[in-house]
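pinned: reference chain
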Amino acid sequence: MWWALFDILKYSFSSAIWGILIAVICMALFVFLIKGWYKDATFSPVSYIIGAILFVFLSVQCVLIIGSLKIISTTDYYETEISRIVDNAYDASDEVTKGQSDDIIQVIIDRFPILHYDIGGGEFSGFTAKELPHAMADELRSFMRWYIFRRILWCLGFVIVGAICVIRSMSKQKKYVSSNLRRSVSYDDF
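pinned: its C-alpha cells
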C-alpha cells in the first residue's frame, strides 16, 4: 500500500491534492457531527491528537481512492496500449498462453510502473490475442473498483474508531449552580 501511495504521488500530484481536500471535508463533517451530538462537551488535547492521527489515516486512504479513480478513468488508454503490444506480437486469432500473457503484463508494467500493484498478479489464459486487451482492461477496472471499496471500508473503520476515541477523550462541562445562589433567589424577588 505504501509503495502504491508513493507511486500515485510521483505520477499524479493532483491525486494528493484532491485526496487531502476530501480528507479535510471529512474531518470538518466529523467535528460538526460530534459537536452536534455532544453540545455540552469540549475537545481535550487528546481529542485533537486523535483528530490529527485520524486526518493522516483518512488522507492516505483518500489519496489512494483518487489515484484509483484516475487509473480507472485511463483504462481505455491502457487497453489501447495493450492492443498495440498484442497486435505487434501475435495474430488476432492466436490463443495466448499464461506465459505469453505474463510477458505482456511485464511489458505494460515496464511502461506504466503505477500498474504494478494492480495487474501484477493477473492470470490471463484462454483468450485470443484480439480478446486479451479487453479482458485485461476489464480485470483492471474490476480490481480497482474492489480496491476503492476496501479503501472506503478502511475510512469508515478509522472514522468509527476515531469517533469512539474522541468521544471518550472529550471533557464534559458540568453546569453547577451554587446552592447559595438558589437560596438567595426567591420568587418574592420577582
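why pinned: The chain has a mean pLDDT of 82. DSSP finds eight helices and four strands in the chain.
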